Amino acid sequence: MSLQKMHCNIATTSIANVIWEDLWTVKKELTRSNVDGSSRLLLGNKGFVQEHILPNVIETGGGGFDVNVRDVDTGSEHMLVLKLRKSSNSYVLTKNWVSEFVKRRELEENDEFGLRWNDENSRLEFTLLRRKL
């Protein structure tokens, strides 16, 4: 392969990565508490939750909301529960977060992920953007 063709392939891949990353409404690095068995993913973007998720989910009996989450990297779908933590006034995803995401995907602190709401399919979508260095 010529050097010019390699440079073109690298540039195309870099542009595709930038475009892919721009498709995600929330981009965040996982913290220790997201992966250490605390059984929750803290969603720091309250506006995203209130604007995109809450109008599209049904409240469960326990004060939470069932949320269908598709892992776009693997094509698998998982049911998590969205709850408001009153102590911090922030939303968290619980129930199956550790087993179906952290363990299954071998997620670690500082891995970067993306989230977006898919209106057409009424589900949250997850992707792993970058593994920790």
Biggest sheet overview = 7 strands, mixed
Structural class assignment: alpha+beta
Please report the number of helical segments: 4
Calculate the terminal CA-CA distance, rounded to whole Å. 29 Å
Question: Can you list the strand order of the major beta sheet?
Answer: 1-6-7-3-4-5-2
Keywords: DNA-binding, Nucleus, Transcription, Transcription regulation
Subcellular location: Nucleus
Protein name: B3 domain-containing protein
Organism: Sesamum latifolium
Give the gist of this structure.
The protein is α+β, with helices and mostly antiparallel strands and 133 residues long. The chain has 4 helices and 7 strands, in the order H-E-H-E-H-E-E-E-H-E-E.
Structure description:
With 133 residues, the protein is α+β, with helices and mostly antiparallel strands. The protein has a seven-stranded mixed β-sheet. It is globular, with a radius of gyration of 17 Å. GO terms for molecular function: DNA binding. InterPro entries: B3_DNA-bd, B3_domain, DNA-bd_pseudobarrel_sf. Its main location: nucleus.
Break the fold down into its secondary structure elements and pairings.
Layout: H1 3-22, E1 26-29, H2 32-35, E2 41-43, H3 46-53, E3 65-71, E4 76-85, E5 90-94, H4 97-105, E6 112-118, E7 123-130
Parallel strand pairs: 3-7
Antiparallel strand pairs: 1-6, 2-5, 3-4, 4-5, 6-7
What key phrases describe this protein's structure?
globular, 7 strands, 4 helices, alpha+beta, B3 domain-containing protein, seven-stranded mixed β-sheet, 133 residues, 33% strand, B3_DNA-bd, B3_domain
